[in-house]
Amino acid sequence: MTAPTVAGPFGALREQLSDAAAAFAGSADALGAILAGMVDDVDRALGERLEIFPVCHHSPASALAMVRRLRAKQPRVIYLELCEDLQPLLGELRNCRLPVAVQAFASELSGFPADAGPLSVVAPVTEASAEYQAIAYALETPGVELVLVDRSTDHVFQWSPRDRPSDGSGTAGATDGGGTAGPTATGEESGLHGDAVGVEIGDLRPRFAELEAYLLHHGKVRHWSEWWDQYVERPLADADHDTYRQVMVLIGSLFRRLRPAGEDRLDRDEDRERYMWTRMRQHLATSGVDPADCLYVCGAFHAASRVEQFGLGSTAPDFEITPRTDTRWRYGLIPSSHSAIEAQFGLAPGSVSIAAATWTKAVSRHNLSPYRLDGQRTGTSRGRRGRAPTAPVPTGPVSDRLTGFLAAAPDLDGLDEAELRGWCVDIVRLARRNGYLASTADAIAVFETSVLLAGMRNRARPTPYDFADAAVTCIEKDVVPGRRDVRRLCEILLGGDRIGQVGYDALPPLARDVLDRLQPLGLALEKRTVQRALLDLAAQPELGRCSDLLWILRHLLPPAAVRPIMGERRLGHRSVQESWDLALGRHQRALIELGYEGVTVEQVLEQRLRRAVRGPDATAAGALAAVEDAIRLLDSPRLVDELGARAVDLLAAERTVDDAPDVLRRIRRLLAHYRASAPTLPSWCAAFVTTGYAHYCTLLPTAIAAEETGVRQVGAMLGFLFSMEGLALSLGCDRSQLELAVGQSHPTAPAKVALLWAARHQLGLLPLAELRARCAELLANPLVVPAFPQYLAGFVHALEPVPTLAPFVVETMSTAFARLPDPVLLPWLPTLITTLRDQGPELVPLLIREAGRTFPEALPELDSWVPPWVAPPSPAPPSAVPAAAVSVPRRRVGVLLAAHPEAVDAVAALLGHDGRWQPMPDPPVDRSRASALLTGHPETAAAVSVLLGV
Amino acid sequence: MSEMLRAPAEVTYADELDFLESVDTGPKPFSWRLSPRMVRLFVLGSERADGLSREIPQKWFGDRSFVERAIVTLASDRGLLLIGDPGTGKSWLAELLAAAICRNSTLVVQGTAGTTEDHIKYSWNVSMVIAKGQSRESMIPSPIMTAMERGVVGRFEELTRSTSDVQDALISILSEKYVAIPELDQDNIVFAQPGFSIIATANSRDRGVNDLSSALKRRFNFVRIPVVTNKRSEAEIVRFRTEELLRRHRIELDVPPTLLDILLQSFADLRAGAAAATSDDEKLESALSTAEQIGVLEDAILHSQFFGDRTLRAATLAGSLVGSLARRSPEDLAILNKYLHGVVEPRARKDDDGWAGFLDGGRQAIASLS
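Predict the joint structure of the above. Result:
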C-alpha cells in the first residue's frame, strides 16, 4: 500500500478513503491503493501549472462548464486533444450545419498494407460538446490560438495493430463499441460515416465489460449513456468549475486504474499522452506564452495520466515522435448525424439527441451565451454569438470539493410536471400519427407510469429513459402498426435525429464543380430529398453537358445517389429525353469522398478506369469494359487507345479462358460500334483481334481437354475464332493455325466432343451427312445413350461459333426428344432449360427461329407433317443450274460478272482453272397463270382464232 | 404444505415474504403487502448493496426493466398483459407478482375455448337458488370477482384462448371497476376494492386465435417477454427450476455442469438453425423455449432415476431431447438427424466432453422413432 501523504488539500479525503478501504475490504492494500491513487491523481492534475480541463464527449455538463470557464478565464492558447493535422479544417466548420465530421482520408497508401485502404478517420463535432465551444471561442476571439496536439491521423493507423487497422483509434469508443459503423449499422442516417474509424475527444467509459455491467446493474439502468446521465451528467450540470474538474479527473482516474492489465490500448493512450505533452511543451517553448494563459482540453481519462512527460515541471525527455508515412492524406468535412455518432461509438440510441436537448435547455435555464462560429448555419434558432468578454477571473488555490460532492446526498431534481406532461401529450399525438390507437387516456397513463418508474429507480424526476419505458409500456401493444415503434417515436420526440450538412464553401473543389455544372437543371440539390430532373435534350441541347456529368456520376457514386428513370447511354446511343432521380444531398459524403480523388469527376473517372486495368487482378474482359465506359462517358480517344492497348496485353497474358464469353460479347459490341462510327478500326482493336485469334488458337487444345474449362468457355473461344476469322485473316493471320489447333484438340467430355465436331464441320472437315450419321450411331448405342444429352448440350453451345448449324441442332434435339428413353430425357430437361435460360439472349432466338421454320405452324398440319430430315432426298440437282433456281440477286451478279469478266478470268487463271463462261439462262416465264386465265375466259381467244381463221 | 404437490409461490416463499414485509419501509400503493421496490427485490433477488440481513434468491430471470414495467402497471389503473412465446416464464412471473403484492396467487381463471362469462363474473349454486332464491349467498363469485372484493390481484391465464365476447367481459371490470348483478334487487353491485388488478398472460404464437379487441387492448399494458437467448441467464433459469423439480420429486441426483452446457448449447444450435430456416419444414415445431429445456432435463433426470443407474448421462439427455422435440415425423426427425450428424458429430470427434455419448443417445432415439 502506498503511504498516504496527509499533506495537500485532499489529505483528509485520502485518509477517509483509506479508512473506508480498510473497513470494507478487510485488507486495505489493493483497494486502498486504488482509492488513494485516485485522490493523488486529482491532486496532481489540479496542481498542474498548465490548467487541464477534463471533458467527456457529448456531455452537455462538459460543454456548460467549458462555456463558463472560457468566459471566466479568457485563455490565449487552447490546446485540444484532436489529431493535429485536422487543424486547417476547423475554420470550415463555419460553413456547415452541425453535426458534421472532420475527415482524413487516404486511398493511395504508402507504408501501410495495400489491402488496408482506403483509410478514413472521422471526428464528429456536435454543438453540445465542450470541444465545439473551445473551437468556436478560439476561432472567433481575436488573438486566441487553437493548437491541436494529438497524434496525426497517420499515427492513428501507424500505432494500430496491423491485423486490424480499423481498430486503430485510441480515443474513440471505436474499439469498445464496434467503432466502425459500416454495413452493420441499420438505417441510412446511422451509416453516414461509412466504414471510417472514429476519433473523439474525451472518451470516458469503463475499459472492461464486467465493470460496466456492474455499474449498470447497481445503477439500475440499462445503458452506459443512461448511467452517465444519471450519475455524472445531472449532478455536474450546475457544479462550479473546481468541483467539475475534480469530479471528472476522479472518474477518469477510476477508469484508468480499473482496467485490464497489459492492455494494448493503454499503451497507445499513454503514447498519445506523451505526444500531447511533448507538443505542448514545444509550443510553449517556441511561442513564449505564459502557461497561466493556456488551457489544455482533453478527455478526463488523459487528465489522470501518469506518464513521465506529464506536467510542465517534468524533466523527462521529449517523446520521440515517429515521422509520418508517405501516405497522402486528404482532408474534408462530411455530414454526420446523431444516429451515426451513436452507432459509431456504441452509445444508446437517442443519447446524443437527448444530450443536445439537455444542452439547449440548460443554456436557456442558466441564461448562458454559448460560443458559436460566425456564419454557422444552425439547426436551432437560438444562435447567439458569444457575449463581450468579461474580465478574467484569477484562479485561486485548489481546495477540496470532492469530499463535499461525494458525501452529499444526490440533489434530486424536482418533478418538472410541465415538461413531462408535454412529452406525454406529444408522444400520444405522434403515436396516433403513426397508426397507434393512442388516446388521451394513454397520455395520462404514460405520465403516471413515468412517475412510478422513476420512483422505483430512485429518482424523483423521470429521465427521458424512464419516459420512453413508460410510453412503451402503455402504448405499445402486440403489433407495430406503422414503420416506427414507440421507442423510436420517443427518440424522435426527445430531439430526433439531426443530420448535418456541409456548406457549399466547405466542399472540396470536385463537389463544388459538380453542383455548379448541374446548376442549369434548376434543382435544389443540397436538399436531402430526392429531386427529379427532366432533360429534354432535343429541346435544350445545352443540358447535354449535365447529362454527360450525370452519367459519369452514375458510374462513380452509389446507385441511389444518381438514378436514371428514363433514358440510357450505350455504345453509340444517346437518349433524346432523360429523367433522373437525384439524391446528392443525401449522399453528400460519397460526393465529398469523391473529391479526395481528384479535382473533376472526369479526372476521377479516368484514374479509376486506369486503376481498373492496371490492378493486379485486372482481366481482359474488365479492360474491355473500361474501354466501353471510356467511350460511353468520356469520349477521349487517347484514353480509349491506352485502355485498349492494355486490354491486348492482358489478353495475351491470360492463361485461362474463363472470361472468354465476356470477352467475345464485349469485343463484338466494340467492333460493331467502330464499324458504324469510324472509317477505320483503331489499331488496338485490330491488335486485339489478331492477338485473340492467335491466343485462342494456342489455348484451344488445352482448354478443350481440360476438365475445369466449361463448355460455354470453349464455345466462346470457338465463337471468337470463327466470327473474327474474316477480320483476323485480313489482318494477316493464317487459317492453318486454326486448322492445326482444331486438329490437335482431343476432348473427352461429350459436350466438348460435340463442339469439336461442329468446329470441324465449320472448317469443312466434317460434312453434315457424317455428322448426322455420328449422332445416329450415338443414339443407336445403348451404352452411350445416357450421355447423349451432353452431346446435345455441346451442339447447343456450338450455335455460338457455328450459327449455320441451327437446322441440325433442331433436328438433333427433335430426334433426341423422339428417341431418348424417359429415364435419360426427363432428368436432362431441366438442365437444358437452365442452360438455355442462362445463355438465352444469344442462343434461344436462333433456335426458335429455326424451329419455327422447321415445324408446321398449325396443329392440324402436324398430322401430315414429315420432318425434312426424314423426307426422301430430293433428286440430285442437274449440273447446270436450272433457270428457276437462280435467284434474282444471283442473276444480277451473274449479269455483272458476264459484262466484266476480266477479274473472274484472272482469278481462274491464277487458280489454274480452265473454265468457260456459260450463257445465263433466260428468266423462266410462268405460263400457268396465263393458261388458267384463258381457260377461264375462252371467249376472247376464240374470237381471235376466228378472226385469224385458225 | 408438505401435502401439496406444488405449493403456490406465496406458500413456498412465505418466509421470504414475511421477512421482506417486516423490513419494508417504502410507500405501498393501495393495499399492497410490499412496496414496489420490495416486489422487484423479491422477484429479481437481493444484492449486498440492498443491505438486507438475509439473502433473497432470484426467482425470475430476465431483463430488470420488464419487471419494473410490470410492477408499475399493477400500481396504475390498467391491467397487465404479459405476452410472449410459450415457455418464457410469463405465468411464473405473474404468480410471483401476485404472491408478492397480495400473498395470493391462486385467484386464477384459465382461458380456454370453453371459458364463459360466468367464469369471469359469477355463477349460481342452482340447488341453493331453488331452496332459498337468488341472493349473495347462493352466488358463486369467480376468482376475478373474489379478487375485486378483496382488493387483490386476479390472474387470467391464456387470455387469447377464450373467445372474444368472453374477453370483452373484462372491459367493464377494468374500466368501471365493478360488476353489476342484475338478478339481485339489492346489494347488486360488487365494487373493486383498492389494490385490485388483473395480470393476464397471452401466448404470442396464438395471437390470431382470438385477437383482443381494441377496447380491451387499451385497458391493458402489454409487456412482451422475449425468449431468453443469453446463455448465462438461461443456465441460471434451468438450474433454478430443475433444483426445484428435484426437490419436489425428492430426487438426489447431480446434474453435471458439462451436461447442462451440452443442453444449452444444443438448444442454442437448434435456435440458430430455426432462425436460418426459410420454411416451416426446415425448423422444429417446438418454440425451443427455456421451459422446453427444463422439460428435457426433467425428463432425462426422471428417466435416469427410475430406469437408469441414478446417474444422469449424456445419452439419456439426448434421448429425452429427441423425444421432446420430435413432434412431426418425418420433418422434425430429419432436422434432428441433420443436427446430430452435421453439428454434434464433428464436435464429438474433436472434443469428447460428453458429446460422443450425446450423439449415440440421439442416434438411438431417432432410430427407435423412425
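The longest strand of chain A covers residues 77-83.
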